[in-house]
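Researcher: I'd like a structural prediction for the single chain below. Treat it as a standalone chain; there are no partners to consider.
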Amino acid sequence: MTDDFDPVAHNRVAWDDLVDNDNEWSRPVGPEIIARAREGDWSVVLIGHEPTPRTWFPDDLAGIRVLCLASGGGQQGPVLAAAGATVTVFDNSPKQLARDDEVAAREGLVLRTVLGDMRDLSAFEDAAFDVIVNPVSTLFCPDLKPVWAEARRVLRPGGTLLTGFMNPDVYIFDEVALDRRELVVRHRLPFSSLDLSEDDRLRAYGDGPIEYSHSLTEQIGGQLAAGFILTHLTEAPHHADVTAQHLPGYIATRAVKP
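Model: Treating it as a single chain, here is the predicted structure.
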């Protein structure tokens, strides 16, 4: 990689390509999901296919201002809008955001989509939101400190941050071997796919997004250092990975801005 390589710009193009290739996180929810959400029967995911506990959300979403952070794809945002929330979807990929606009138009939902880097939420005023929903996405972000600082700024006092992320331990394994359902320890942590040679990166990740392992200190400790109070934590196996037989690949947390 050259010195002027921009991982955010690369990941924007890579995620647009994933949308074109029918990535599972780019498949908009169907009309039946929206219909149930309108009746109060709804769930969204932070990690894998595990529904986020409803107790992590306010009892009633009517009028609750929700920021779906790095959460395009026509999934979480439209469901929460159908359940009554006032929803803004923020994502780095124009085509991911287009999925949310597509569902909103199809279902007559009102939601806002905003393009940008999750480290910079300057599009929003202080205390603009009651809840932030951030499904697994921080692995695509080079630096998490500004993410947590901005999340805290745009939440109202008493607001909640719900985030899902990868267990960094999964990154010790060789990615090509994982595709063969083999566990081969190869990498030291912290790890980024940028650490690989160009040939090895293309072999393991193709032209896909750049990934970063991010330690638990960065993920959980970073939220605490930003001033959040952690209230809940849960783990789940990676739904599509052989590591699921041995360790939880996903972690989700709920934190509150005091």
